[in-house]
Amino acid sequence: MSEQNLPDKDEAAGRAMRAADDTRKHLAQLFSPKATDAGQEVISRVQGMWGSGKPGESGDTSGFEGMRRVISLTGSTEPPFGGWFDDVADRMAELVPGFATRVMVHRGEITFFVDRDKLLELAKHLRDDEALRFEICVSVSGVHYPEQTGHELHAVFHLLSMTYNRRIRLEVEVSEDDPHLPSLVPVYPMANFHERETWDMFGIIFDGHPALTRILMPDDWVGHPQRKDYPLGGIPVEFKGAVVPPADDRRSYNR
Protein backbone atom coordinates (compact mmCIF):
# COMPACT_ATOMS: atom_id res chain seq x y z
CA MET A 1 0.00 0.00 0.00
CA SER A 2 1.41 3.38 -0.94
CA GLU A 3 1.64 6.15 1.60
CA GLN A 4 -0.85 8.21 -0.40
CA ASN A 5 -3.50 5.47 -0.13
CA LEU A 6 -3.37 5.18 3.65
CA PRO A 7 -6.74 5.96 5.25
CA ASP A 8 -6.84 8.89 7.66
CA LYS A 9 -7.44 6.64 10.66
CA ASP A 10 -4.12 4.91 9.96
CA GLU A 11 -2.01 8.05 10.11
CA ALA A 12 0.01 6.65 13.04
CA ALA A 13 0.71 3.52 10.98
CA GLY A 14 1.78 5.71 8.07
CA ARG A 15 4.28 7.46 10.31
CA ALA A 16 5.66 4.10 11.36
CA MET A 17 6.07 3.06 7.73
CA ARG A 18 7.97 6.23 6.92
CA ALA A 19 10.20 5.84 9.95
CA ALA A 20 10.92 2.19 9.17
CA ASP A 21 12.92 3.25 6.12
CA ASP A 22 15.57 4.73 8.39
CA THR A 23 18.42 2.60 9.70
CA ARG A 24 17.35 3.34 13.28
CA LYS A 25 14.70 0.64 13.50
CA HIS A 26 13.06 1.81 16.72
CA LEU A 27 11.86 5.09 15.20
CA ALA A 28 8.94 3.04 13.91
CA GLN A 29 7.78 2.65 17.53
CA LEU A 30 8.04 6.33 18.39
CA PHE A 31 4.43 7.45 18.05
CA SER A 32 1.54 6.68 20.36
CA PRO A 33 -1.85 5.54 19.02
CA LYS A 34 -2.95 8.98 20.31
CA ALA A 35 -0.58 10.64 17.83
CA THR A 36 -1.90 13.75 16.15
CA ASP A 37 -0.71 16.03 13.39
CA ALA A 38 -1.29 19.57 14.63
CA GLY A 39 -0.44 21.00 11.22
CA GLN A 40 -0.84 24.77 11.20
CA GLU A 41 -3.27 24.75 14.14
CA VAL A 42 -4.33 28.24 15.20
CA ILE A 43 -3.47 28.83 18.85
CA SER A 44 -4.48 32.46 19.21
CA ARG A 45 -5.81 35.53 17.46
CA VAL A 46 -4.40 38.77 18.80
CA GLN A 47 -5.40 42.38 18.42
CA GLY A 48 -2.90 45.00 19.53
CA MET A 49 -0.04 44.18 21.86
CA TRP A 50 -1.95 43.59 25.11
CA GLY A 51 -5.40 42.72 26.33
CA SER A 52 -8.22 40.47 25.15
CA GLY A 53 -8.50 41.85 21.62
CA LYS A 54 -12.29 42.19 21.93
CA PRO A 55 -13.75 45.44 20.54
CA GLY A 56 -13.82 48.04 23.27
CA GLU A 57 -12.12 45.67 25.75
CA SER A 58 -8.54 45.50 24.55
CA GLY A 59 -7.02 47.33 27.51
CA ASP A 60 -4.16 48.09 25.13
CA THR A 61 -1.87 50.90 26.32
CA SER A 62 0.77 50.38 23.62
CA GLY A 63 -0.69 52.42 20.77
CA PHE A 64 -0.96 49.32 18.56
CA GLU A 65 -4.65 48.54 19.05
CA GLY A 66 -5.23 48.27 15.31
CA MET A 67 -2.70 45.46 14.82
CA ARG A 68 -4.20 41.99 14.25
CA ARG A 69 -2.28 38.71 14.17
CA VAL A 70 -3.14 35.01 13.76
CA ILE A 71 -0.64 32.74 15.54
CA SER A 72 -0.32 29.07 14.52
CA LEU A 73 1.73 26.10 15.65
CA THR A 74 4.71 25.16 13.52
CA GLY A 75 3.35 21.66 12.84
CA SER A 76 4.67 18.13 13.23
CA THR A 77 7.99 16.80 11.95
CA GLU A 78 8.30 13.28 10.59
CA PRO A 79 11.36 11.06 11.17
CA PRO A 80 14.18 10.91 10.31
CA PHE A 81 14.90 14.19 12.11
CA GLY A 82 18.60 14.49 11.30
CA GLY A 83 21.87 14.14 13.23
CA TRP A 84 21.84 13.12 16.87
CA PHE A 85 18.10 13.84 17.09
CA ASP A 86 17.55 10.43 15.45
CA ASP A 87 19.92 8.64 17.83
CA VAL A 88 18.12 10.06 20.85
CA ALA A 89 14.61 9.51 19.47
CA ASP A 90 15.45 5.94 18.45
CA ARG A 91 16.74 5.07 21.91
CA MET A 92 13.76 6.75 23.61
CA ALA A 93 11.36 4.78 21.42
CA GLU A 94 13.22 1.54 22.19
CA LEU A 95 12.95 2.11 25.94
CA VAL A 96 9.39 3.53 26.01
CA PRO A 97 7.56 2.57 22.79
CA GLY A 98 4.73 4.86 21.73
CA PHE A 99 5.55 7.69 24.12
CA ALA A 100 5.20 10.57 21.61
CA THR A 101 1.98 12.12 20.39
CA ARG A 102 4.01 14.21 17.95
CA VAL A 103 7.49 15.67 17.46
CA MET A 104 8.51 19.13 16.35
CA VAL A 105 11.91 20.17 15.03
CA HIS A 106 12.12 23.95 14.70
CA ARG A 107 15.09 26.32 14.51
CA GLY A 108 17.57 23.59 15.41
CA GLU A 109 15.69 22.38 18.49
CA ILE A 110 13.62 19.23 19.03
CA THR A 111 10.46 18.98 21.11
CA PHE A 112 8.83 15.65 22.00
CA PHE A 113 5.13 15.90 22.83
CA VAL A 114 4.75 13.15 25.42
CA ASP A 115 1.75 11.06 26.44
CA ARG A 116 1.35 12.07 30.09
CA ASP A 117 0.85 8.43 31.17
CA LYS A 118 4.41 7.71 30.01
CA LEU A 119 6.11 10.91 31.18
CA LEU A 120 7.55 9.63 34.47
CA GLU A 121 8.85 6.37 32.98
CA LEU A 122 10.44 8.24 30.09
CA ALA A 123 12.11 10.77 32.39
CA LYS A 124 13.78 7.99 34.41
CA HIS A 125 15.27 6.49 31.26
CA LEU A 126 16.36 9.90 29.96
CA ARG A 127 18.29 10.48 33.18
CA ASP A 128 19.80 7.01 33.68
CA ASP A 129 20.32 5.38 30.29
CA GLU A 130 23.97 5.32 29.15
CA ALA A 131 23.07 6.44 25.62
CA LEU A 132 20.90 9.37 26.81
CA ARG A 133 22.17 10.78 30.11
CA PHE A 134 19.94 13.86 30.37
CA GLU A 135 21.01 14.48 33.94
CA ILE A 136 19.51 17.93 34.48
CA CYS A 137 16.02 19.38 34.20
CA VAL A 138 16.96 22.97 33.52
CA SER A 139 13.46 24.39 33.83
CA VAL A 140 9.74 23.67 33.85
CA SER A 141 7.32 26.18 32.43
CA GLY A 142 3.71 26.44 31.35
CA VAL A 143 1.79 27.69 28.33
CA HIS A 144 -1.93 28.40 27.96
CA TYR A 145 -3.62 28.09 24.55
CA PRO A 146 -7.35 28.79 25.18
CA GLU A 147 -8.30 27.94 21.58
CA GLN A 148 -6.84 24.40 21.78
CA THR A 149 -10.00 22.74 23.06
CA GLY A 150 -9.24 19.70 25.22
CA HIS A 151 -5.53 20.42 25.56
CA GLU A 152 -5.39 24.05 26.55
CA LEU A 153 -2.54 23.76 29.08
CA HIS A 154 1.00 22.68 28.20
CA ALA A 155 3.81 21.85 30.63
CA VAL A 156 7.27 22.17 29.09
CA PHE A 157 10.38 20.45 30.51
CA HIS A 158 13.83 21.50 29.27
CA LEU A 159 16.43 18.74 29.71
CA LEU A 160 20.23 18.97 29.43
CA SER A 161 22.78 16.20 28.96
CA MET A 162 26.07 17.29 30.47
CA THR A 163 27.64 14.04 29.27
CA TYR A 164 26.87 14.62 25.58
CA ASN A 165 26.20 18.41 25.56
CA ARG A 166 22.68 17.94 24.17
CA ARG A 167 19.36 19.63 24.91
CA ILE A 168 15.83 18.40 24.29
CA ARG A 169 12.37 19.59 25.25
CA LEU A 170 9.46 17.49 26.54
CA GLU A 171 5.97 18.97 26.26
CA VAL A 172 2.83 17.49 27.82
CA GLU A 173 -0.68 18.68 26.97
CA VAL A 174 -3.56 18.59 29.46
CA SER A 175 -7.04 20.08 29.54
CA GLU A 176 -8.35 22.81 31.82
CA ASP A 177 -10.88 20.29 33.12
CA ASP A 178 -8.21 17.69 33.95
CA PRO A 179 -4.93 19.59 34.49
CA HIS A 180 -3.06 16.68 36.10
CA LEU A 181 0.29 15.14 35.17
CA PRO A 182 2.95 13.32 37.20
CA SER A 183 5.57 15.36 39.03
CA LEU A 184 9.17 14.89 37.89
CA VAL A 185 10.56 15.85 41.30
CA PRO A 186 11.24 12.14 42.17
CA VAL A 187 13.50 12.02 39.08
CA TYR A 188 14.78 15.61 38.96
CA PRO A 189 14.65 17.15 42.48
CA MET A 190 15.64 20.53 41.03
CA ALA A 191 12.21 20.66 39.34
CA ASN A 192 10.59 21.27 42.74
CA PHE A 193 10.32 25.08 42.66
CA HIS A 194 9.77 25.15 38.88
CA GLU A 195 6.70 22.93 39.18
CA ARG A 196 5.38 25.05 42.05
CA GLU A 197 5.71 28.17 39.90
CA THR A 198 4.01 26.47 36.94
CA TRP A 199 1.11 25.46 39.18
CA ASP A 200 0.96 28.93 40.74
CA MET A 201 0.88 30.74 37.40
CA PHE A 202 -1.06 28.26 35.20
CA GLY A 203 -2.91 25.83 37.49
CA ILE A 204 -1.22 22.68 36.16
CA ILE A 205 -1.33 20.09 38.97
CA PHE A 206 1.78 17.93 39.37
CA ASP A 207 0.63 14.74 41.10
CA GLY A 208 3.20 13.43 43.58
CA HIS A 209 4.88 16.78 44.18
CA PRO A 210 6.08 16.97 47.81
CA ALA A 211 4.60 20.43 48.52
CA LEU A 212 2.61 21.95 45.67
CA THR A 213 1.98 25.40 47.18
CA ARG A 214 2.13 28.91 45.79
CA ILE A 215 5.60 30.35 45.34
CA LEU A 216 5.04 33.79 43.78
CA MET A 217 1.50 34.75 44.74
CA PRO A 218 0.11 34.95 48.30
CA ASP A 219 -1.29 31.68 49.66
CA ASP A 220 -4.86 33.01 49.53
CA TRP A 221 -4.63 34.29 45.93
CA VAL A 222 -7.49 33.17 43.68
CA GLY A 223 -6.73 32.03 40.14
CA HIS A 224 -3.60 31.62 38.03
CA PRO A 225 -2.31 34.94 36.67
CA GLN A 226 -0.49 33.80 33.52
CA ARG A 227 -3.48 32.12 31.93
CA LYS A 228 -4.55 34.11 28.90
CA ASP A 229 -8.14 34.37 30.12
CA TYR A 230 -7.05 35.86 33.45
CA PRO A 231 -8.11 39.53 33.83
CA LEU A 232 -5.30 41.95 33.05
CA GLY A 233 -6.17 43.91 36.17
CA GLY A 234 -3.35 44.36 38.64
CA ILE A 235 -2.80 46.25 41.86
CA PRO A 236 -1.12 49.63 42.41
CA VAL A 237 2.66 49.44 42.80
CA GLU A 238 3.97 51.92 45.31
CA PHE A 239 7.33 53.69 45.01
CA LYS A 240 8.77 56.48 47.11
CA GLY A 241 6.82 59.55 46.12
CA ALA A 242 4.82 57.86 43.34
CA VAL A 243 2.26 55.16 42.61
CA VAL A 244 2.08 53.19 39.34
CA PRO A 245 -1.60 52.32 38.73
CA PRO A 246 -2.68 48.82 37.62
CA ALA A 247 -2.66 48.17 33.89
CA ASP A 248 -6.45 48.47 33.50
CA ASP A 249 -6.37 51.99 34.92
CA ARG A 250 -3.67 53.37 32.66
CA ARG A 251 -4.65 55.61 29.77
CA SER A 252 -5.13 54.29 26.25
CA TYR A 253 -3.42 56.01 23.35
CA ASN A 254 -5.27 57.39 20.34
CA ARG A 255 -4.78 55.47 17.11
From TrEMBL:
The gene is nuoC. Its EC number is 7.1.1.-. It catalyses: a quinone + NADH + 5 H(+)(in) = a quinol + NAD(+) + 4 H(+)(out). This is NADH-quinone oxidoreductase subunit C. NDH-1 shuttles electrons from NADH, via FMN and iron-sulfur (Fe-S) centers, to quinones in the respiratory chain. The immediate electron acceptor for the enzyme in this species is believed to be a menaquinone. Couples the redox reaction to proton translocation (for every two electrons transferred, four hydrogen ions are translocated across the cytoplasmic membrane), and thus conserves the redox energy in a proton gradient. One of its GO terms (molecular function) is NADH dehydrogenase (quinone) (non-electrogenic) activity. It is a peripheral membrane protein. NCBIfam families: NuoC_fam, PRK07785.1. Residues 114-234 form the NADH:ubiquinone oxidoreductase 30kDa subunit domain. NDH-1 is composed of 14 different subunits. Subunits NuoB, C, D, E, F, and G constitute the peripheral sector of the complex. Residues 1-21 are annotated as: Disordered. Pfam families: Complex1_30kDa. Belongs to the complex I 30 kDa subunit family. Keywords: Cell membrane, Membrane, NAD, Oxidoreductase, Quinone, Translocase, Transport. Gene3D superfamilies: NADH:ubiquinone oxidoreductase, 30kDa subunit. GO terms for cellular component: plasma membrane. The keyword Transport applies. It is found in: Cell membrane. The keyword Heme does not apply. Its main location: membrane.
